[in-house]
Amino acid sequence: MAASIALAVVFGTINLRSASAADVLAQCAQASSQFKGWVHIRESIQGEKNFFVQHINNETGAWVSERHVDGGLDVQMYLPAENEEIKYSSGDGQVKIGEISPEFASRWKTEMQHFPLTKEALLAKVPGATVRRSDDGGLIRFDVAFPADDTRSAQEQNRTEYPSSAVVWIDPTSKLIVKGQSTTDGKLVTMQSSYGDPAVRDVFDVGVPKNAKVVDLRPPRNVNVLMGRLRKRFDDGFGDFVGVGTTTVVSSVDGKQSPPEREIEIYGASGPAYAAETFNVDAAASVDAPATGTWPAERLDAVLKMLSGRIPNSFFVGDGENAWQGYASVSGGIQSTKIQGTRAVQQLSELKKMYTLAGRLWPVRDLSTFGTDAKSQIVTDPARAGQIGLRIDRLYFVSGPDDTKLAQTYWFDPAKDDLTVKGADIYTSTTTNKVVQESHLATSAFAQTQDGKWYPSQWTQNFTMYSPQRTTETSTDTHLQIWTNKSLGPDWFVDPATKAKAKP
């Protein structure tokens, strides 16, 4: 995708100095934004045999990628209308069909509909970039020179690194890009594009053998039914409520245990506003973690009063219009980030699944049944009558030297609002086939809110990480109480950094 990205940079960032060039590019932007259908792009690096092809339907969002490397073929296809991902590798000769989430399908379709060029992209500027227009063999040619750039600057500005130069050829009649090239780090990347037919109906249309074995990895219906219920539980949450959790954390390295740490978590919702804040509490605090599984209701006001003047160790809060995420800095201040920008909706959705109480209790983010690398099934156990078991096996990509295989087994109780009774996550290295990390959760007690909703009132979770150097273990014991007849004050739903600055 190097050339197509570079060309997007060309049209999205040049600072035009020629009125005629600006007029032509504006016409190209208009033509590209109005074109609907298939766009086919072939990319290669000069002097290399490997090449890459993309097929994009900017109307339906369908997308196909071909990677031709060392004589092999890898194909990946997204079909947003069918919520499907399809992959093929000549390495194993299999066509794998997986499911993508409706949220991902919608986002992907939107991204593809903005390809390859929009008027809005033309408005951005890069100081120092210049463009020169000329005629070349019946095509309109644009030569673009970019200012010096580096990877660090690009990362800091959340953009793609500029090529040192780029050239684009445009059909004078259709005003669409027909070919281009860019130079980065001394390598010349070339691109050719075409529009319309042939349509790509499936992976067999791009060279996958017709006799390839097809493996259907889409979740079975009973898995989709369960996941649908869990997502609805997450979406519904507890309505307006206040929740107080107390957690004791015990860590050890190679069996050497550190002193216990204690945390108090405050959760709440009031209409569209929400809060999830964690506070570290030392042994001398006026309010400490309880020794039993209940927290007397009459102490709630005292707890909130004590914590209202403290800096949270971590937080995710929203007032219904704005949202903030952050943590306490080492210097004693607060690092706060406002959730905004073009991906704010997607980011908020993920953060709610990660940090809100409903996200913690119904793990819809952690239990991913999507993609061609996941296999899911409902399991049973005579010793767990009335419970529903879910087993997911999938690849889990990490930033370390090895990727892992993740095996998840979770048990839910339909009689208690599908809450988790027990869960296990086992990560195994794909290289050594040894367990490198595992997590085990067990709920020991449940309770009900004033309006009859179930929640776990006590659970434990154990995390273990194995490496050649050491074994690290962390155990947590959490007690929770929820009130649906009480509410947090408005100060809990605003940016804690703003509150800290306002303190005298």
Description of the structure:
The chain is an alpha+beta fold and 504 residues long. It has helices spanning 2-13, 19-34, 102-113, 151-156, 221-236, 300-307, 344-355, 357-361, 496-502; strands at 38-45, 51-57, 63-69, 72-79, 84-89, 94-99, 130-136, 139-145, 165-170, 177-184, 187-195, 213-216, 241-253, 256-257, 261-270, 273-281, 314-318, 323-328, 334-338, 374-379, 388-396, 404-413, 419-429, 435-448, 454-466, 471-483. Strands 13, 14, 15, 16, 17, 18, 19, 20, 21, 22, 23, 24, 25 and 26 form a 14-stranded antiparallel sheet that branches. A 12-stranded mixed sheet has the order 7-8-9-10-11-1-2-3-4-5-6-12, covered by helices on one side. A hairpin with a 5-residue loop joins strand 1 (38-45) and strand 2 (51-57).
Pick out its properties.
single chain; 504 residues; alpha+beta; 14-stranded antiparallel sheet; 12-stranded mixed sheet; 19% helix; disordered N terminus
Could you report the average pLDDT, rounded to the nearest whole number?
84
Rg, please? 27 Å
Overall helicity: 10-25%
Shape: globular
Low-confidence stretches: 1-19, 117-124, 283-298
Tally of helical runs = 9
Tell me the structural class.
alpha+beta
What fraction strand?
35-45%
The major β-sheet equals: 14 strands, antiparallel
How many angstroms does the end-to-end distance come to? 54 Å
Number of strands: 26
